[in-house]
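INFO  loader      accepted 1 record
INFO  loader      residues=296
INFO  predictor   begin
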Amino acid sequence: MEKSKVYFTKEITSESLVKIYQLLSKEKSLNGQIGVKISTGEQGGNNYLHPELIGDLVKKIDGTIVECNTAYGGSRQATKKHRQTIENHGFDKIANVDIMDEEGEFEIPTRNGSVHLENDIVGDHLKNYDSILMLSHFKGHQMGGFGGALKNMSIGVASHNGKLHIHSAGKSTNQLYVWSHLPEQDAFLESMAEACSAVVDYMNNNIIYINVANRLSVDCDCDSNPAEPEMGDIGLFASIDPVAIDQACYDAVKNSEDPGKAALIERMDSRHAIHTVEHAAELGLGNRNYEIIDID
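INFO  predictor   done
INFO  writer      dumping tokens
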């Protein structure tokens, strides 16, 4: 199989973000109504992708920032508090922000080969978008090991109930039940990949992916008090292949000469994080073999 292209730059600025997007858009251009899927970040945290970094790109593509409510207690579980967090973090100053499950949800089918989920449950407003820029902060994650394009596309696009559906490996959307009856780890990771397959197919693959590997905490932006990063920033990665881009980020951490990488590697490997990438590849979402195209 031909290797997937992953564009890379060490420079993490608003200008380089626009530049890497423009290179990627020569391979696949987003059109129509464009949703920009980010994490708006839990109140109290500071590692999310800040408006000062992403604003120029969001404006350039005339994108709408899209999010869904979370499935745990915090500042983003309910729409009213979520909107206040969005305002506190300044995202409403750079674009319209759409909480896609604010007015409901619907089910979309996963691919053949899925073993846990027959359907993914997503915010009803996903119907309003023709294409998506999956703009993800690559970092560690308490449950998934790391969060990148695949997590942003699965857990991130899922509605409140959809998140519970994924976390339970398809068993329940009852919040009290789910958090006290979590499945074995690989089943959760596989469920994230299966949810991704549903989103990719529903959007007719009109998605491109940029991962920002900065503020590399072992904790996710969903944590209101994340651990401080122990390793330095790596850079920007961009691809039309969600499997390749997450594999490339994982490999970049593993191959880094930064001794601070140990904590993030422990977080990723102790959760078997790469298995989400493995299952996504098995479902045909992309290629784990890639070539890095350095744009510096």
